[in-house]
Amino acid sequence: DAGITQSPRHKVTETGTPVTLRCHQTENHRYMYWYRQDPGHGLRLIHYSYGVKDTDKGEVSDGYSVSRSKTEDFLLTLESATSSQTSVYFCAISEGSSGTDTQYFGPGTRLTVL
Amino acid sequence: AQSVAQPEDQVNVAEGNPLTVKCTYSVSGNPYLFWYVQYPNRGLQFLLKYITGDNLVKGSYGFEAEFNKSQTSFHLKKPSALVSDSALYFCAVRDINTGGFKTIFGAGTRLFVKA
Q1: B4 contact residues in A (CB cutoff 8 A)
Q2: What residues of A are in contact with residue B103 (Cβ under 8 Å)?
Q3: Which residue from A4, A8, B18, B40 lies 20 to 30 Å from A72 (Cα-Cα)?
Q4: Mind listing the pLDDT tens digit for each residue in A32-71?
């Protein structure tokens, strides 16, 4: 999976609790992304980062925040988890941001919010 | 607005037969098009992409895709299916004007290859 790890791989939590998912890359790519995958929706972009401490919102960012203090790490935080955030979360990286750049994906984190 | 449609939730094919997984797109400008495959409990793996040039793009594992601008389609094909090709396939599109941050994924098509 292109030098990308995600932790944890599985998590079950309760509504209202904070949750942080971690993405770690060894490729030294500048761009990193968080997606969620839900049946019938494909993948939808939550947040992305274009450098250390540089982040921006994607199409489904409500209820999520991100941080990137090092090139290799991109954290996704659910401040107060809700059942609608039950999903599979994928991190992706790319070397550049042009339309031609390929995104490479991590193995995913399955999150269940009870 | 950009959009991608994968009209078939599921495609069934016998091993050794040709397979096609369909994708149509809508963008305001020229498209960049991608196909990814997802095996169970794994992330998405890049198969191939169309940027410019030859309309027939060859990718990993014997897959190819044909870009058809007039029909706004980018169908994935393989001449002879293998049981190991059974997986979930995603088509994705970017508008040349918006770059890599706005990648729109289709809902996915599950391919079953029967022995």
Answers
A1: 42
A2: 45, 103
A3: B40
A4: 999 999 988 889 999 999 999 999 999 899 999 999 999 9
